[in-house]
């Protein structure tokens, strides 16, 4: 089993996703600054599309690593069933945190995907303010809240599973 690079006994892809969770919120805030303050709709669109592609690839690779290579998150946390690092009670608590994280981790790509798909379909080319802007702002802010909660709960899971 490969080790992560953040100094904890995890997997490489888990640490990659943790770095992505840390980087995505400032990147989205920068994207929002570009559109709200600078009126740079093209850069906003490009950042959002780039983030969506990068995160889709990172999370896809993470899921393959977690499910196929390691056989589930429990095997990454405990390494070996013979000498588990966490008790059954601790694993239950960690799983509860994971369930909370998964609520946001599952809704984020759906909400973000709908926001992006509608924008690509309804926004003018090049992008700018239009009839769709009101709905796009609402969906966009919901997406920002969702991805932020995905990041916070994902980091919470990492903390309780590997740091605490």
Describe this structure in words.
The protein has 5 helices and no strands. The mean pLDDT is 94. The protein has 164 residues and is mainly α. Helix 1 (12-36) runs antiparallel to helix 2 (41-69) and helix 4 (88-122) packs antiparallel against helix 5. The protein has one domain (12-163). The protein is elongated and about 60 Å long. 24% of the residues are buried.
C-alpha Rg (nearest Å) = 18 Å
Low-confidence stretches: none
In round numbers, the mean pLDDT is 94
Morphology call: elongated
The helix/strand order is: HHHHH
Count, helices: 5
The class by helix and strand makeup works out as: mainly alpha
Q: Quick one: how many beta strands? A: 0
Largest sheet report: none
Tell me the β content.
under 5%
Tally of separate domains: 1
Distance between the termini: 21 Å
> What is the helix content?
over 70%
Short description:
The chain is mainly alpha-helical. It contains 5 helices and no strands. It has one domain (12-163).
Features:
164 residues, elongated, mainly alpha, single chain
Question: How does the SSE layout of this entry go?
Answer:
Layout: H1 12-36, H2 41-69, H3 73-78, H4 88-122, H5 133-163
Helix pairs in contact: 1-2, 1-5, 2-4, 4-5
